[in-house]
Amino acid sequence: MTFESTHCFAADLGGTKLAAAIADARGQIVAELTEPTDRRGGPHVAEQIAACADKLARGAGIDPARVRHAMVGVPGAIDPLSGRVSLTPNIAGLQDLDVLGYLRDRFGPDVSIENDVNLAMLGEQALGCAGGCRNAAFLALGTGAGLGLLIDGRLFRGARGSAGEIADLPIGRDPAALTPSVPGSFELEVGSLAIVDRYRRQGGTADVTVRDIFRLLEEGDAVAATVLDTTARWVALAVATLQSLLDLELIVFGGSIGVHPELYERVRRALPAFFSRPVITARSQLGDRAGLIGAVCAAAQSLCQQQTPAQCAAAPGTHPAACDGAAECRPGD
Amino acid sequence: MASVTRQLSRRSVFEALLHRSPISRAELAKVTGLSKQTTSEVIDAFDQQGLVRPIGRTSGNVGRTAVLYELSPEGGHVLGIDLGARMTVALADIAGRVLAEADEPTDSRGGTWVLDQIARLAGRLARDNHTHPSRIHSIVLATPGVANPKSGAIEMAPNISGLGNLNVVGLLGEKLGSPVTVENDINLALLGEIWHGCAQSFANVAFLALGTGVGLGLYVNGHLVRGENGAAGEIGYLPIGGDPLQAESRLQGCLEYQVGAAGIVRRYREAGGSDINSVRQVFERAQAGDAIAAGVVEETARLTGLAAATVIATIDPQLIVLGGSVGARPDFADKVARVLLRLAPRPVEIRTSMLGKRAGVVGALSVALRRLHDELFGVAELAATLPLPPPPARASSALP
Question: What is the pTM of this model?
Answer without folding.
Answer: 0.89
